[in-house]
Amino acid sequence: MTDPRPELVSYRICPFGQRAVIVLREKGVDFTITHLEPGERPDWFLALSPLGKVPVLRVGDTAIFESSVINEYLDEVYPPRLHPAGPLDRARHRAWIEFAAALLADQFAMMSAPDEGGFREALQKAAARLDSLEQGIDPGPYFDGAAFSLVDAAFAPAFMRLDLLALPAELDPYRARPKIDRWRRALAARDSVRDSVVEDFPERFGRFFGSKGGVAVRFLAGADGDALQRRRINP
Amino acid sequence: MTDPRPELVSYRICPFGQRAVIVLREKGVDFTITHLEPGERPDWFLALSPLGKVPVLRVGDTAIFESSVINEYLDEVYPPRLHPAGPLDRARHRAWIEFAAALLADQFAMMSAPDEGGFREALQKAAARLDSLEQGIDPGPYFDGAAFSLVDAAFAPAFMRLDLLALPAELDPYRARPKIDRWRRALAARDSVRDSVVEDFPERFGRFFGSKGGVAVRFLAGADGDALQRRRINP
Question: What is the pTM of this model?
Fold first, then answer.
């Protein structure tokens, strides 16, 4: 290993930065993390990130942007390999990683919706996406069997956020989707996933979308941070 | 090569599908292409593409979606390698490929803007993006020197579309951006790029955005298809 110690720049509630943290933890990489506040873009950061987006991984003088690119890099440089060996299998994994980004976008829309109608519409879109996912996967317990892969790291932040919502049974994203339900439970129990967010993540998550006027925060398990924490850790 | 002949499914004017065509041509791959009309999503296609988006590459029973994933696959399976050998260099290339996707989104917004104000706003956003690009690159003549890379395949469709617009000098995206200007000329002259679209691409491009009510079509070099064609081929 000749590369210097990598530095991850992210927001504490950024699901894309969290993907990189999960991979760094899976590989036991010695790294530092610099947190910005959501929307904060100091000049030194804009100089690193031409798209102005987190996460960025700084490796010596090189800044790597986009979470999927960061994770590909980490996987190539630090063992164990989390991508499968065959090119076609790897392509299938990469495609589902892109799919996870679309699910995160649905989720952001859900959490940001300013009224009940918007929330239900966004939830319906996410539900259709989850139906495609349920049909396309066969987890056991992870995406590709017993071995944790980059696809797992890509989906875990989406499931962790869905887990925070205490939705009525008819809106429960896991009901009637047994494969996803099994998968998200396995991910929630994984050390690298549990340790991929700050202690007060649920509260920060709620505050962020509450400050944007999102009605979905009413489904966060009350204003009681302990309850949120319990729900997250014991799904 | 044990994999069966790949089939690309795309729209004739899709810049993301075009990225894959460029790579297939660079590598001299024997492939078939199936064109859908924009917005057309037959059931067989939705069964392949869980995001409902083109392009999709079908390889035997496996469907690979997302252009960057398709091109990674093609690069791993068919020589010559268009990605650099070092992981950090490769990460830098991948990050700029993501950047190109953002530029294409700007361009779509430019072409779709229903009024002059919206067009100028979108153009300004694209111009800021091009400024970041001009600062971040050092082409000679391609992105990474003399060798054509996947980054070149990712940007070529964006430049080809910008090349179709005859903008007044003060809006010219290449003026005062000499590095991008040199790069896009080298790309426009490359066989794989020239042969990556159908013969009547400029007319199809104009018709598509014209039917969406985009005011930018007035900057397409007249309604004269020959003029468009000349401008494309002799930039």
Answer: 0.90
